[in-house]
Amino acid sequence: MDLDVFVTAHRAEWDRLDLLIRRGRRLTGAEADELVALYQSTATHLSLIQSTAPDPQLVGRLTQLVARARATVTGARRATWRDAVTFLAAGFPAAVYRSRHWWIPTAVLSTLVAAIIGWWIGVNPDVQSSIAAPDELRAMTRPGGEYETYYSSHPATSFAAQVWTNNARAAALCLTLGAFLCLPVIWILFLNMLNLGVGIGLMASAGRLDTFLGLVLPHGLLELTAVFIAAGAGMRLGWTVIDPGPLSRRAALAQQGRAALGMAIGLAVVLFVSGVIEGFVTPSDLPTWARIGIGIGAEALFLGYVYVLGGRAARAGEHGDLDATDRSAELPIAA
What is d(CA 290, CA 281) in angstroms, rounded to the nearest whole number? Predict the structure, then answer.
C-alpha cells in the first residue's frame, strides 16, 4: 500500500471526523449518523495501516482519533451501586465458577503437597532439628506455645486487618504474576504449603495435631480456598500467554486480565471474612467443634455461592468480564 496516496485519499474523512467530535452534543441527527460511519471507517483505516504500513506518527494520530470518536459515540458511563451488586451476584461468582478446572486441581495438589511435607517432617527428627533447636521446637509446640498464642498475640481488630492485608496481597500477586508463564504463582503457592506443612509436621511430632487443626481450620478453609482460586486464575492467565485459543493473544490476555482484576476485588471481600474469623473466632474461648463448625459453615456458604449463583450466571453467558460497552473497541483484523 502506498501510504502517501492512502493518506491523501482519506485525510478529508479524518478531518471531518475530528470536526464532528469537537462539536459533540450539538450535532444534528444526520451529522450523528455521519460521525458513526466515519468512526467505523477510520477504525478500519487504522487497522489497515497497522498491518501493512505501520507509520508511528500516523498510527498515533488515528488511534487517538478513534478513541475520541468511540467516547463520543458511546458516551461516558459512571459506575453505580447496581454495577457492584451485579458484580457480586453474577460477575465474580461466574468468573470463579468458570475457572474451577484450574483452582480445584490446584487445591487438591497443594493440599497433598502440604500433607506430604507435614508427614516427612513429623517422622524425621533430623528434619525437625534442622528447622530449630529442641528448646525452640518445644516452645513452639507446647500447650500455650507460639503456635497457640500467635492468634491472640495482638488485639483482634488489628490482627484481623493485618491478616486480611497480607492474604489479599498474596492473592493479588498470584493473579497478576500469572502472566509470567505461571512460575511465580507456583513458587508463592509452594511457600504457603511449606509453612502449613511445617506446622502440621511439628505439631504432629509433639502429639498435638488436633490442637493445630483446631486453630487452622476455622479460618483456613476459606482463606486457603481464596488463595487456591487466585493461584488457579493466575495460572490460567499464564497459560493464555502460551495458548490464547481462538482469540488473538492480545485480546485473550485482555479478557483474562480483566476477569482476574475483578476476581482480585471479589477475593479481597472473601479474605476479609476469613480475616474476621481468624481475628475473632480462632482465638476465642468457643469449643473446638464450634470454631471448626463456623469455618465449615463459611466455606459451605462460599462454595454454594460459587456453584449456585456462579453456575447459573455462567450458563447465562456471564464471564466476569466488563460489559462490551465498557471495553476498548477491538479493531478489525485485515485479511
Answer: 9
